[in-house]
Amino acid sequence: MNCEQNKIINFLQNLKLNFDIKNNILEQWKSNNNSKQKKKPSSYILFSLDEREKLKKQDPPITKRNEVSKVISTKWKEIKEQQTDEYKKYVKLAEQPSSIEVNKPFKKFSASNRDKIKSKHSDKNAFEITTILKKQWFTLTEEERNSYNI
C-alpha cells in the first residue's frame, strides 16, 4: 500500500469510530429521555382544566383563549387568597401520587384507534394522526367517552 491509501484507510477508520461514538451517545440520550416521567400536574393546572370545562358549558361560552385564561387566573387568585375548600381540594389532588393522569381516557382511546387511523392514512405523520384522533374524540358522545374511563 502506498502512503495515500494508508491516509484514506486511517481517515475512514476515524470516521467510523466517530460515527460509532456519536451513535452511542445518541442512543444513551434517547434511552435517558424515554425513562423520564412526566411531572404531576400542579393544583393550578387541575383547577384550570375543570374551570375550562365549566366555561365551555356556560351560556354564552367563553371561547377566546386569552379571556378564558384571565377568568381562570382571576378565580384561582381569589380562592388561593381565601384558602377556600375548593382551593384545598385541588392542593390535595396535586399532592396525590402521580397515578392521576389528566387525559387518561383520551390516551386510551388514542391507543386503541391509532393503528386503524395509520392504516387508513399511511401518508400522514404522527402529528396529523393525532389531530385526526382528536377530531374523532370530540365527535364522541359523553357516554362513548366515559367508556374509555378506567
Write the layout of secondary structure elements.
Blueprint: H1 3-35, H2 43-57, H3 65-82, H4 85-95, H5 104-120, H6 126-139, H7 142-146
Helix pairs in contact: 2-3, 2-4, 5-6
User: Element order, helices and strands?
Assistant: HHHHHHH
Report, as a whole number of angstroms, the end-to-end distance. Answer: 70 Å
Described by strand count, sense and barrel closure, the largest sheet is: none
Contiguous uncertain segments of 5+ residues: none
Report the structural category: mainly alpha
What Rg do the Cα atoms give? 25 Å
Question: Overall pLDDT, averaged?
Answer: 77
* Structural shape: elongated
Number of strands: 0
Helix content: over 70%
Strand content: under 5%
Number of domains: 3
The number of helical elements comes to: 7
Oligomer: single chain
Report what the structure shows.
The protein has 150 residues and is an all-alpha fold. The chain has 3 domains: 1-36; 43-95; 104-146. The protein has 7 helices and no strands. The chain starts with a helix and ends with a helix. The relative contact order is 0.07.
